[in-house]
Design a protein that fits this description.
The chain is an alpha/beta fold. The chain has 2 domains: 237 residues, Type I PLP-dependent aspartate aminotransferase-like (Major domain) (Aspartate Aminotransferase, domain 2, 3-Layer(aba) Sandwich), CATH 3.40.640; 129 residues, Alpha-Beta Complex (Aspartate Aminotransferase, domain 1). Helix content is 37%, strand content 12%. A 7-stranded mixed sheet has the order 1-9-8-5-4-2-3, sandwiched between helices. The chain has a 3-stranded antiparallel sheet with strand order 7-6-11, with no helix packed on it. Strands 10-12-13 form a 3-stranded antiparallel sheet, with no helix packed on it. β4, α6 and β5 form a beta-alpha-beta unit. The longest helix is centred in the last third of the chain and has 19 residues. It is globular, with a radius of gyration of 22 Å. It starts with 15 loop residues before the first helix and ends in a 6-residue tail after the last helix. The relative contact order is 0.17. The protein binds pyridoxal-5'-phosphate (PLP). The site of pyridoxal-5'-phosphate has 14 residues, from α3 and α4.
């Protein structure tokens, strides 16, 4: 049984602005993509300092669409990371592309850009890195690799809305970036995502493809007071409704404040847990990077502890703190049973993935609750230090 006053891993508290915007949208008589979706897309583009963004029903859909837009052709190889949410890999496989897994950086948990070159073949057309926990990948190195070989970079930036690399949003370093606005993300619409790119023509196409390829959607037709439309190219269905865009518009008014809170929580964790650095590794920001602090992932030095990661999480639960794991490695899923060899050798991932634990991090988490989480961490660690003779 969970103790009372438990500190959950996520606690989603929508702003009043989001609720008001959504109620207004519900009362407006326009529920599907319309004025709110347009306004939301403009706001997302403005935040990223690009001209256009396409709002979509999820980042999962956005990734599939981004891979289609990148136009690499069936059978092409995509270099990606094995430590991510399943949606990254599914998007690659569903597009008829071949994922090639590169090992991860032991500090950031992102793809190890210094190892990507070793994975290149004649069939490599794309690199699909993931900004884990909201920390940007090493885009300078990835760009150098991609540029000389005409390889595209599509980033799964599901965690990284608001993150900066060398002072710029991630889409400035990629061909296309995909953000998620899923319920637990640092900007939410409940479910949703956005495709963002410096290439405006790709975004216009993405928007069209997300509504069956129709050139003038219902809202445009209403505005233009003409019923007709064309389908110049067949698409899929993955647009964002005005109802959900309203949630996002409201949440955006609080975004800077929420990000500031996330940063303060991360700082507090660092200050409180710094003295345990021999036993746990804390996340950091690499030079030139500003993390979106979507997640706070620590790594246990299990070699000097008497308990493993799962026991640690259970011990934290007994102290009323819910923890999570980001991520279960892709090759560990039973869907890939029997094909582990296809993933190649991933020694860093194998070591690190067994030791990661995600602590609660969200704007409504108070600093005194952070202190309680840290007391729980300290208590579990102190009771489980391996004594050397
Ligand atoms: C790394 C990563 N990629 C993709 C996704 C898919 O996002 P969505 O739920 O918006 O489809 C997620 C969602 O959790 C994610 O964490």
């Amino acid at each position: 049984m969970c103790p009372a006053n438990r500190i959950p891993l996520y606690d989603i508290k929508l702003s009043k602005a989001a609720i008001d915007e959504t109620v207004a949208s519900l009362k407006s008589g326009w529920l599907t993509s319309g004025p709110k979706t347009v306004a939301f897309e403009e706001a997302i583009a403005a935040r990223c300092r690009v001209r256009q963004a396409a709002a979509v029903s999820s980042a999962s859909f956005g990734l599939s669409l981004a891979l289609y837009l990148a136009g690499t052709g069936v059978g092409s190889q995509v270099i990606t990371s094995p430590l991510t949410f399943i949606a990254t890999t599914t998007a690659i496989l569903n597009a008829g592309l071949e994922p090639v897994y590169c090992d991860i950086d032991p500090v950031t948990l992102n793809i190890d850009a210094t190892k990507v070159s070793r994975k290149l073949t004649r069939k490599t057309r794309l690199i699909l890195p993931i900004d884990i926990a909201g920390h940007p990948c090493d885009y300078a190195t990835l760009q150098t690799i991609a540029k000389d070989r005409q390889i595209r970079i599509v980033s799964d930036s599901a965690h990284a809305f608001g993150a900066l690399y060398r002072g710029k949003a991630i889409p400035h370093w990629t061909d296309i970036s995909v953000y998620s606005f899923h319920a637990t993300k640092n900007l939410t619409t409940g479910e949703g995502g956005a495709i963002v790119s410096r290439h405006s023509n790709w975004i216009e196409r993405a928007r069209r493809l997300a509504r069956h390829g129709i050139d003038r959607d219902a809202y445009m037709r209403k505005q233009g007071q003409h019923w007709s439309y064309d389908v110049p190219e067949l698409g899929l269905k993955g647009n964002l409704s005005d109802i959900l865009a309203s949630v996002g518009l409201g949440e955006l008014t609080m975004f800077d404040r929420n990000q500031e809170k996330r940063r303060k929580i991360a700082d507090r964790y660092r200050r409180n847990l710094a003295h345990l650095q021999d036993r746990i590794e804390l996340p950091t920001e690499s030079p030139h990077c500003r993390s979106a602090w979507h997640l706070y992932i620590i790594k246990l030095h299990t070699g000097c502890l008497r308990l493993g990661r799962d026991q640690f999480i259970k011990a934290m639960a007994r102290r009323a703190v819910e923890c999570g794991v980001h991520y279960i490695p892709i090759p560990d899923f039973s869907a890939f049973r029997g094909s582990r060899a296809n993933f190649g050798k991933l020694p860093v991932m194998d070591d690190v993935a067994a030791r990661v634990v995600t602590l609660p991090l969200y704007p409504s988490l108070s600093l005194s609750e952070v202190d309680l989480v840290c007391e729980a961490v300290e208590s579990v660690i102190r009771r489980n230090i391996k004594r050397t003779r």
